Amino acid sequence: MKIIAIPDSFKGSMSSIEAAGAMEKGIKSAISDTRVVKLPVADGGEGTVEVFCQTGLGTPVYKEVTGPLGERVNAKYVLLDDGTAVIEMAQASGLTLVEETKRNPMKTTTYGTGELMKDALDKGARKILLAIGGSATNDGGAGLSQALGLSFRDALGREAGYGCGGLRDLQNIDASGLDKRLYGAEIVIACDVQNTLCGEKGASFVYGPQKGADGQMVMEMDGILNKLAGVILEKTGKDVREIPGTGAAGGLAVPLIAFADAKIVSGIETILGLIGFEKHLEGADYVFTGEGRIDEQTQYGKVIAGILNTAKKRGVPVIAFGGSLGKGYEGIMRAGVKSCFCILPGAVTLKDAMENAPKYLEDCAMRVSRLL
Description:
Layout: E1 2-5, H1 16-30, E2 35-38, H2 48-54, E3 59-66, E4 72-79, E5 84-88, H3 89-93, H4 111-122, E6 127-131, H5 142-147, E7 151-153, E8 172-174, H6 181-184, E9 186-190, H7 203-207, H8 215-236, H9 253-260, E10 263-265, H10 267-274, H11 277-280, E11 286-294, H12 303-314, E12 318-325, H13 330-334, E13 339-342, H14 350-355, H15 357-371
Parallel strand pairs: 1-2, 1-11, 5-6, 6-9, 9-10, 11-12, 12-13
Antiparallel strand pairs: 3-4, 4-5, 7-8
């Protein structure tokens, strides 16, 4: 029997790499001669780079860059053999890099993510996959673009400062200094949300509060991003306000779409393509996948849904494991998953569930494998 173990991380309790290892132990304790193919994945958010590093699918590159509040931070990205650079914005501009008491999306910048992109171009990258989950920022991608040569100026020609607040007086965008290598590179942005840039379902209203914004700040930031979109429309003729996905990561994709022809793509589908998931499905009997919580949102573009869509093409059944099964989890089974299992053995404390998640997943995978 051949089983593919391809979980996402169970956030806060185990990485996707640890989860794949736990699945393998459980499967082999039940059916010792089973061939288990471990393919830990991420959805294009936090942990994406680590997956590629730990699985040996790329060469890690380490770089000191500008952090969210202008401090220096150590970040890394991955160069693949085909010339693709996989860059995770959370490495340079992530929410976890900012102390909770200092979170302020009016001030936080994506400049460091732009520095990672520039370094990748310096090292010969011909394609950049930018994973944009977990950001601390709401600057409309201005910082990133400044690092790559784009200039954001007020009426007196002064350069905009860091953060969304730095764009308050924006009047003009000058693309004459933009790194010309971007025009010859393929820029793809891994994103699995459909939020637009502005409005009640936009970057500021939906994600601003978790980055430290209060109600008044949310309103102001939405207005600033709307103004940014207006200036971009004047300069390029492109209206970025209603493009699905531009609301992710505080509008990070907006200048790249407007000035470098970047494309927003499905994070999980792109990652599955890079790791060759469909090829691994050849001869597979089952796919084991999972994530921290399976609920009604799971069927809409998340890791399990992406894995299911690919596995269905090959007729390989998918079984999903979750730290919990929330309201509407049945939706992913109606979509085609054979069954969903909560890994917990019963009523346990949150501390117990988090600390012992690998053991609980191993045990649950063992019991399901015995059934198979």
